């Protein structure tokens, strides 16, 4: 029996050395802005280049804006074109400019963690302050400083379909950006990705090591285009999935980049 179990484990392990089917790659250059497909993304050991390179700061509170408290931020389109940062609002207003570092650095709070934010000068501040209804500054942050866990996240199609069935939302896969995953991968078995912890897999031209499962917050309840609150996915997920000590249910996995495929 033990030999058969070992053989099955070895077969499962070897299968994971093959390339997984990647449906899409996505991120945003501004923390909390709309999660966009980035088919030409470059990767290094710290994840996708340009991912959450900027954030918005409440200077008076010395706080990085939190998406759950500022859901309209999700509606902001943001994309990098070399050094230029394009931001566009749903009403059509937009700016595209190089965010120039002002020389002022603030130590800001990001969910209880200090972040050194370099404030920038440029037209982005006015546009985004008007949209959010309060004064904010665009800031550059060290890569990874406004990221919860590992630099890469993975969500699987079968897991999304399973959650969609549970909440009677059959089109949930079309709204996969709710989960803001770096990689959306095609799978047939719900939550099989959670069994891969510690293994290395190939995702397109990137090789990653699968990490821990991702504890989720209410951002997944926000429409990925408008930011409007929709189906209570978080509550439904918590009703049938495992959670951490804070009651945050798991969905998807973290990963670390270990090289090229």
Automatic annotation (TrEMBL):
InterPro entries noted in UniProt: MoCF_Sase_C, MOCOS_middle, Pyrv_Knase-like_insert_dom_sf
PROSITE patterns in the cross-refs: MOSC
One Gene Ontology molecular-function label: catalytic activity
Domain MOSC: from-to ranges: 113-261
Stated name of the protein: MOSC domain-containing protein
Organism: Brevibacterium antiquum
